[in-house]
Amino acid sequence: QVQLVESGGGLVQAGGSLRLSCAASGSSFSLNAMGWYRQAPGKQRELVAGITSGGSTNYADSVKGRFTISRDNAKNTVYLQMNNLKPEDTGVYYCNAYMIVRTTNFPLGSWGQGTQVTVSS
């Protein structure tokens, strides 16, 4: 079973930057689309950035132009560079493999512990 370990979160002021990392176990990492999800307090978990096995990326409108997702298949790791952070980016960030059916994304693996990102105003 694939295990996911997220790291890199923290407390940052608005306008600051953080880089999140997600280390995945398992031999199928390079075959899967990988995504970063955010769960803000009192809200549902949402996909904010995704990257396909071929390297194509997509972003939620709320983070477009500020976040960059990347992956290193040799290290089984996916990254999320977050710049110009805003208080509304606060939440727990998780990574997972996912697939999209029509317009809905479906996480494929078990969730890790996530990493907390707190942006102060």
Write down the overall geometry.
globular
Instruction: For the record, give the distance between the C-alpha atoms at the N and C termini, rounded to a whole number.
Output: 40 Å
Q: Are there runs of 5+ residues with pLDDT below 50, and where? A: none
Radius of gyration: 13 Å
Structural class: mainly beta
According to DSSP, the number of beta strands is 11
Number of helices: 0
Portion in helices: under 10%
Average of pLDDT: 95
Largest sheet: 7 strands, mixed
Query: Strand percentage, roughly?
Result: over 45%
Order of helix and strand elements from N to C terminus: EEEEEEEEEEE
Describe what you observe in this structure.
- By secondary structure, this protein is an all-beta fold.
- It contains no helices and 11 strands.
- The protein has strands spanning 4-7, 10-13, 18-24, 33-39, 46-51, 57-59, 67-72, 77-82, 91-101, 104-107, 115-120.
- It starts with a strand and ends with a strand.
- The mean pLDDT is 95.
Main features:
7-stranded mixed beta sheet; about 120 residues; mainly beta; about 0% helix
